[in-house]
Amino acid sequence: MTKLNNPFVVYGYKGPEYFCDREKETDKIISTLHGERNVTLVAPRRMGKTGLIHHVFNRIENQNKDIKCFYIDIYATKNLENLVKLLAQEIIGKLDTVSQSALRQVQAFFSSFRPTVTIDEMTGIPTFSLDIQPSEGKTSLKRIFEYMKESGKRCYIAIDEFQQVLYYPEEGTEALIRSYIQFLPNVYFIFSGSRRHMMEEMFLSANRPFFQSSMVMSLQSIDKEKYLSFANNMLSRDSRKIDNGTFDYIYSESQGITWYIQAILHGIYEHREEEINKDLVDTVINELIEEQATSYQNYLSWLTDNQQQLLRAIAEEGLVSSPLSRKFIKAHSLPATSSIKTALNALADKQLVSRTPQGYSVSDIFFEKWLRRN
After folding, report:
1. Which of 85, 175, 323, 338 sits in a 20 to 30 Å window from 254, CA-based?
2. This prediction's pTM
3. Ranges of the chain with pLDDT below 50
């Protein structure tokens, strides 16, 4: 594997060498899939669930070449047709040998959806696309799962931001998917999502189709001591080290959320000639915030006055247990409760604020810091 110029990965998965901990979670997910059960993975955005999925699949594929792993992110999908097309592009053709006869068989299997195939010149791997009409979404989804079943190969599919299916205009998409996948003897799923209350409602409510259909795992922060050990192992290549106090500060400023810790460590690594202390951490955080300042300003410009006021008030508090309470509204000179309720729902839909059992907070930690300063 190519050695990275900066070992603190901020985007994508670069291999186990650059992946911090999650050993128990990795083992649990692999053993659950091996035991013919699906997995539901719930975590706030940027906690590292996507990296964990790729880490799990990397280990599985290295241990057993006969198992096929597929990852799709459906966050940007708007309907069932979009979902089916993503599945088709990722899965169809990947279970077959790249021979003319095999490709003809695949094309025959999906003939009613007018498949077209593109062969990657570098890898030789085929990519299929289906011409799916809106009315054919259900049928084509069933056909893709039948294709996987008939392949006879053990397959693991991760569907990231799975709660997105609840926004599809087609009624009953949740029940439809459940009805198709429960009879696949060789295909198992990881359903991951960042909107905790929606994912828990889908998988833990007795009246929902996916109730008791999978092992539910909530992803927590990586242990501070293990993260410090990982960081110092990476920094040792430059004969540098972070002391406990400075890393405590990084961990606190990041609220233990993986992406922010990685981003700060990535920035520290770039300042190769400087001593690693709290002043350097503050410098890096300021640089990261400045990089996004234009985006943050744009976020605000898209909001109504009420939404802006509420967002700034939540940022000032950090965590608000009761944003509709008279005390909170009075303290920040906010408009009437009905207006704040509307604004809160809008901010949550835009994922600018997140709801946890403890209350509401600004979803992006660096955005929160920017709001406090401006």
Report:
1. 323
2. 0.91
3. none
